[in-house]
Amino acid sequence: MISIRHVQADDAVAAGLWAEQQAELRDLYIDPADQTDDDTFARDIDATTVYASFVGSDESGVAAVSAVLQWASEELPPGSIEAKRLYVRPEYRRRGYSRVMMGAVEVEARRSGSTSVVLGTGTEQGAAIALYEGIGYREIEPFDEYAEYATTVCFAKDLPTRVLVINGSIGAGKTTTAAAVFDALTHRGSRAAFIDADSLCQSSPAPPDDPYNQRLLFANLAAVAPVYRARGIGLIVIARVVEDPDDRTRYAKAFMSQSGQADVSIVRVDAPQDVRETRLAARNSMGDWRGWELERTVELSTSLDWLELDDAVVWTDTRTREEVASDVLEAAGWA
User: Fold this and answer.
1) Would you put residue 211 in left (φ > 0), alpha (ψ -120 to 50) or beta?
2) pLDDT tens digit string along 140-171?
């Protein structure tokens, strides 16, 4: 078994593994009589483009495997993230460690909001080629430094869009929390977007059989989803009440891409009724809207409790927006 940990981009242990990989590649691809100390098959890692670096160690703590994720160059479509420096020391091979490391790489790629993972290997590395093909990668044209060598083979794997819907009654903090989640994702360097879904269905008159304009909402989401995808945005945060059990599937289909339907998480935020009412009173709603909001927050809270459509519930009344956002990300598996 190996344990995988994140390390800094300039970690000395990781750099040692990379050096071993380069030496092995020289022996694979260059005749010993033609080798020089300057031979290299990869440019130096640019720490400013690294999203994550990994080292895997055995039970005794000895480093056995490495990998790096860094944002790809502009030569590739937006949202492409490159897996580099995947290396397993010879004595640890044939144990499935490279597959385990690639699993960790893909989990982190999904957290980054990337829309595809790309990588390069060589014609003499049959085991690596078999690994990538076996876990769903397709061959693509060599890119960047890989295009300099006739012996390189490059691969890519598309990742599904991930959608996080912040559910909750009126006054529970849906929009505030969704905005805070987006801020947290932006701060960590992820490719994300925030949609206040209410703004996509403000239309009057609403159809009698669709008073909250749900059909308009999902038509609009399906229309903008390809735009976000083309920009390489893989994480979508949406603030919107979820009262229909079929909405999860509707979100998944609205953000469908070439890699399939979106992965959808629904996290509900909540607060005690008196807190929600206090928040609503501070909103400047006038006349009939004030009375409607106060009635609706009670009705909706009861309905959401009964429906239980959420993956988790996070309370917003005793913590800061940043703390709530952290809890929501953890509950959604986006932390």
Assistant:
1) alpha
2) 999 998 998 889 999 999 999 999 999 999 99
Domain boundaries, the chain: 3-22+37-158, 162-332
Say whether 162-332 and 3-22+37-158 share the same fold.
Answer: no
CATH architecture of 3-22+37-158: 3-Layer(aba) Sandwich (3.40)
CATH number of 162-332: 3.40.50.300
DSSP string, 151-190: TEEEEEEE---EEEEEE--TTS-HHHHHHHHHHHHHHTT-
Count other Cβ atoms within 10 Å, centred on residue 98.
22
Which pair of structure tokens corresponds to residue 188? 């960590």
Angle in degrees, 0-180, between the axes of helices 214-230 and 247-254, rounded to the nearest 10:
30
What is the Cα–Cα distance from 133 to 13, expressed in whole angstroms? 29
pTM, entire model: 0.92
Q: Tell me how far apart the terminal alpha carbons of the chain are, to the nearest angstrom.
A: 24
